[in-house]
Amino acid sequence: MTALELTVRIGAPAHGGHCVARHEGRVIFVRHGIPGELAKIRLTDSGEDARFWRGDVIEVLEADASRRPHFWAAADALKAGAAGKVPVGGAEFGHMDLAKQRELKSLIFTEQLARLGGMDAADAGFTGVRGVPGESDNGLAWRTRVAFAVDGSGRLSMNGFRSNDLIPVTEMPLALDSINALRLWELPLRGISRVEVAAPAAGGELLVLFVEDGTRPGAADKPAAKLPAGVSAAALTQSRGTAADGRGELRRIRGRAWVAEEAAGHTFRVSGEGFWQIHRLAPQVLTDEVMAILDPKPGQVLADLYAGAGLFTAPLAQAVGESGLVHSIEGAPGTSKDARRNLHHFPQAKVTQGRVENALAAQLREHGRKLNGVVLDPPRTGAGKQVVRELAQAGPQRIAYVSCDPASFARDVADLRRNGYALTSVKVLDLYPNTHHMESVGVFERRSTSR
């Protein structure tokens, strides 16, 4: 059955990389359009009982001046649509110039904060999404981490947006040049379900992680042997008895199962299972923001929640000195292990692995010292009500909140405001160019009286 095609006028941007269009009263979330354009779309999700439909632009009848040819053929919706296929996900804003991308992201952030956070972004000094110094003019070659799928024929692939279709790829223009230089699409990948790559932003040894699907024992050994000299390789073996998180057992094949990253004058060891900021400039940019917000002093007690490999903990611990204390809390076991290695020379850094809300409460009971400040860098789902309540009990005067999702940030803004905090400043940085994602850095101050 042929998918239904419609002609619509593209409306306002919406969170998630869409714009809103309407057809006979029906709301349609459309990707790959620009507000104001007249376009032909192909519906990807539709039904008479559905609250809304979804669709992709397949032909532009009246183009916005900001539209440009997509830099990546596999992600070009117009080319994919002409062939009756879906485009690769992950570069959904690549059809417009960076200035327009940031304009749309600014509108989305403002709308989310108003609707979910209950406040005007301008009241917190928001002036629009901004790029970062040192970013390329075209927003390419910034990803230090990339994950690929592998199709049934053993070809390196990526998923289409909201699709189980695997699309073979022979490049990833958002990735660092050193990642594309590996030419992973030439490797024999049968028995592999996923390939993940980590490249240190400052240069150095890359790590390729092969996730085996369990059908061929040792399947990662053959492609690992074909990697260029000086590239490390490891495997995650998925089989019966695999850990509950689905990640399996990590096996080093050659080199080391981690990469060395540099930020704020510190060196961090980040394993194949660990978390690190994706944009090559993000670790330093975000550390500078956090340190300026908290302005840590010797002897203070701070908390780094969702601390990852210790990116913020290390400079905070150095600043508070041995008379101070930094609670560094992370939920993921592998990432927490990285933090322990990275912070072992800071006795004032208390590294804890566990659910943030539980670990924070336990640490505060044990040490009996109120917090002077907190850095909060949760996953895309946000911190949530329980973490916010524990923070309010701890009573820090200032919170530096780093967020990669405007919707969860806005929900947490509402919760923090109900618990006695005011969002006094917010910056939104374009650390994900050519995608709909953005990074917010908010400053929360404890009000003198709270409800």
From TrEMBL:
GO terms for molecular function: rRNA (uridine-C5-)-methyltransferase activity. Keywords: Methyltransferase, S-adenosyl-L-methionine, Transferase. It comes from the Bacteria. Pfam families: TRAM, tRNA_U5-meth_tr. The keyword Transferase applies. SUPFAM superfamilies: Nucleic acid-binding proteins, S-adenosyl-L-methionine-dependent methyltransferases. One of its GO terms (biological process) is rRNA base methylation. Belongs to the class I-like SAM-binding methyltransferase superfamily. RNA M5U methyltransferase family. This is tRNA/tmRNA/rRNA uracil-C5-methylase (TrmA/RlmC/RlmD family). It comes from Paeniglutamicibacter cryotolerans.
